[in-house]
Amino acid sequence: MIQLTPVLRPTDLTDELVQQLTDRFKADKTQRVWNEEFIKTALLQMSSGKCCYCECKINEESKYMEVEHYRCKDIYEDEVLLWSNLLPSCKRCNGTKHNHDTGVEPIIHPVNDDPRNHLELKAYRFYGRTLIGKTTVEVINLNERERLQRKRFEVGAEIKERLDELEIQMRDYLESLPSTRKRRNIIHKLRGIIQQGQPNEEYAATVSTEILREDSYHFVKAELINLGWWDDDFQRLEDELAKIAFL
Ligand SMILES: [Zn+2]
Fold it and tell me: Which of 54, 128, 205, 219 could be stapled to 133 by a disulfide with Cβ–Cβ 3.0 to 4.6 Å?
């Protein structure tokens, strides 16, 4: 889970339309009035096509995406189309949260809260640091073993492996005669690894955390600085990791 930057309410979603659709929903609760393509598109833009809770990709023609109501539409029916109440979610997270009442027992709001203030990430599991964090882990089932924990382990292990290989390559470079090919290769690989932890990537919380926690990363980075290869672009990319990593 990472904090998302809000996007503006779509211009198509006018006050009149909100009123009209909200009334329709209140008259008949089976009406899926939020199921509009322009709503889904704007919400997906906010999360770079990911679920706001588990960070799986849901952008394939928005068919796997569900419009999540932070405050449950069955209880807070007037907020069924309130823009700040709508979030992009996968079927699993939306279904797991179901009609949990966040008005009574709040969970992390992916736009308003920084999840790092409420959660810790240890061994690919999330733990609550606050009551809100603990409730979030439970209500979203953030540590579901097959679907989430294993996925985080897989992406984390892959990053660790790539960093270990890069450390070996760097040591090899330092011990042999300077080679342009080897230099380019190291720079290219490191950039690729850091790219994978950027906020728009799947499971970015796990990947960014893994990168910044690994000694191999800091070894390679220190050598890049020594060699004068660490540029503004690397720094910018690393700053993005630091904004979302659970350190
Ligand atoms: Zn999800």
Answer: 128
